[in-house]
Design goal:
The chain is 29% helix and 21% strand. By secondary structure, the chain is an alpha/beta fold. Helix 3 runs parallel beside helix 4.
């Protein structure tokens, strides 16, 4: 197999987004055709249900948009699991969902992966 890429599950068509949908991206799928995919959804892997209340990162915390619940611990667990997968599989690149409180440009998971030196492309 080819290079291993960590990929947000929603970009692959998994219905794991907060609203129960996906963000299947044909460009991502085309770019991955000769790669080995290491799929992640840090929010689900961190213990959050699908569907779930949308949330926003506010500094070091992640807060739900309507009930204002602090769900940072779920995001931290999901980020840790993504880091562990990346280490286990020797991943050097990640294709992540932009504008997500976990995978997005300012997301908790993306932050941890960047600190590991993983090259990230957002879609």
């Amino acid at each position: 197999m080819g290079e291993k890429i960590l990929v947000s599950a929603c970009l692959l068509g998994k219905n794991c987004r907060y609203n129960g949908t996906n963000k299947r991206n044909e460009k991502v799928i085309e770019l991955l055709k000769d790669k080995e995919i290491v799929e992640i959804c840090p929010e689900v892997e961190g213990g959050l249900p699908t569907p779930r209340e949308p949330a926003t990162r506010r500094g070091d915390k992640v807060i739900t948009n309507f009930t204002r619940r602090d769900i940072t611990s779920f995001f931290k667990i999901g980020a840790l699991k993504a880091v562990q997968k990346a280490q286990f599989f020797g991943v050097k690149k990640a294709f992540l969902k932009s504008k997500s409180p976990s995978c997005g440009e300012n997301g908790l998971t993306a932050e941890k992966l960047k600190k590991m030196g993983i090259e990230i492309k957002w879609f």
